[in-house]
Amino acid sequence: MAEVPPNLPHPNQPGEPAPGPISAAAGNPETAAADQAAGGTTVDPAIAARATAPALEMRAISKRFPGVVANDHIDLSIRPGEIHALLGENGAGKSTLMNILYGLLSPDEGEILLDGAVVEISSPSDAIARGIGMVHQHFKLVPVFSVAENIVLGNETMANAVFLDVRRSEGRIRALSQQLGFEIDPEAMVGDLSVGIQQRIEILKALYRGAKVLILDEPTAVLTPQETSEIFLVLRRLAGEGTSIVFISHKLNEVLEIADRITVIRRGRVVGQADPKTATEESLAEMMVGREVSLVVDKGPASPGEAVLTVEDLTVADDRGSIVVAGASFGVRAGEIFGLAGVAGNGQEELVEAINGLRKVTSGRVVLGGHDVTNDSSRSLSERGVAYIPGDRQRFGLVLPYPIEDNLVLTEYYHAPFSRFGVINERAISKRASELISQYDIRTPSGGLPASTLSGGNQQKVIVAREFSRDLVLLVADQPTRGIDVGSIEFIHRQIVAKRDAGIAVLLVSAELDEVLELSDRIGIMYRGQLVAILDASTAEKETIGLIMATGRAEVPA
Ligand SMILES: Nc1ncnc2c1ncn2[C@@H]1O[C@H](COP(=O)(O)OP(=O)(O)O)[C@@H](O)[C@H]1O
Ligand SMILES: [Mg+2]
């Protein structure tokens, strides 16, 4: 396709300038020149420019939202070519600070200096013009567009209504990605690519616009360990060429691995700097949370009872109709944690969705406490005492525009005391909500605010609070701690073990092998849709599990 009409649909980026019908080449002369010369050049202006990344300083930045001081006189300085990690609990104020740097929010107080001069960054276009690029926590790519269209389209650099020449940019995108040490097919449709590749496209998109300072807001939250290592290679290479990188994560091991310097934020304030050469995961956790945190799960042996959940020869198809779970059979007993390990995308997600009534079973049976519940609705399962913590919490777990209070009773609102004779009792809902908010330490100024205002970890706590506070027989937890900080992970792990000890059957799915190993009593391993092994967690070796996850077999073929 040589021409793209100017009125294409567009990713909505809240707060960013309204998308206009425009030309990639016209907005940014540097980019335009590079596009013209695409394919043949050896030194891309975007690469060359990065060698001169400015020193960046944020001084005494404050930002208040109703009921909360998100940033309280934060100082942050970034050196040219360094990877600077910003570490903090969910809701500490990291994204707010970076949104200020990227011109998405304006600070109430404080100033930003680039190479010693005070600058005003009033919009993302401003930020981009000054060489600051940002990759957001949630991807903003358009799945039905090609890689090149996504990189070139996107808003900011485009200024007037001329036709886009995507083809011409493809050469440049290829060249840029090769210079960074990874290959991307500019013609591929983004929706067909893995999240790991999509993440690289987001990085490429920022670099394409000439970013010399690159902000990555929790880039690894949704990546597999393998994808994370690959992104780290890219980041090291970029830093080596002079790009300054602000890396946000709450994964302590990652921060220790990648960062040159670490700044820790707690409740809107800088609580200190740490040197990755001397810091430990324990010391960082304590700085983040403000108290000692146990990074290992404290649990005694299980005393399992009768089978609660029995899955018999279950076959499940994905949205396109391909079989992704092929004949899985296993049981989960009362008082045990059965962990499903596997590289993401080996059928775990679909298996759990099928068990929870969110996906049709092709064949086989799901039996709960003696009742055949195959293809029962999630509401009916919930009534039978099944709790579900979904992997995709924004899709299944919460109604984001609804108040936090309502989200806390979402699976129960149609029962007394929350409603009687069809009439909702607001007072009862409010009361229960405030109990749960304090018991589960959900950080919000008010339960009346929409769930969308909560940070990711606090959204997860809302789901956990709601699901754990009912009478349960089975708890299905899919990635229960994904995107959550260490303090909350410790809390959720304790709750899961407490449920087990109270005699509830627990089915755990996690992409974090360490989490499966630490929590589970038995471990099932999924490989290409099949449950290829079931091991006793107390004797299973991590290496063996890793090998089975990677190959489907315990021994490497000769
Ligand atoms: N647009 C907003 N409106 C109201 N409150 C917000 C908004 N954005 C963030 N907050 C609040 O500001 C605090 C810091 O949030 P955030 O910067 O997203 O934290 P982090 O990125 O460290 O998890 C949180 O209490 C959050 O609920
Ligand atoms: Mg954030």
Would you give an account of this structure?
With 558 residues, the protein is of the alpha/beta class. It has 20 helices and 22 strands. A six-stranded mixed beta sheet has the order 6-7-8-3-9-10, sandwiched between helices. Strands 16-19-20-13-21-22 form a six-stranded mixed beta sheet, sandwiched between helices. A four-stranded antiparallel beta sheet has the order 2-1-4-5, covered by helices on one side. The model is unreliable at 1-29, 36-43 and 155-163 (pLDDT under 50). Bound molecules: adenosine-5'-diphosphate (ADP) and magnesium ion. Adenosine-5'-diphosphate (ADP) binds next to strand 2 and helix 4.
- In total, the number of strands is 22
Give the N-terminus to C-terminus distance in angstroms: 47 Å
How big a fraction of the residues is strand? Answer: 15-25%
How much helical structure, as a percent, in the residues?
25-40%
Task: Report the major sheet.
Answer: 6 strands, mixed
Globally, the shape reads globular
Low-confidence stretches: 1-29, 36-43, 155-163
Our count of helices gives 20
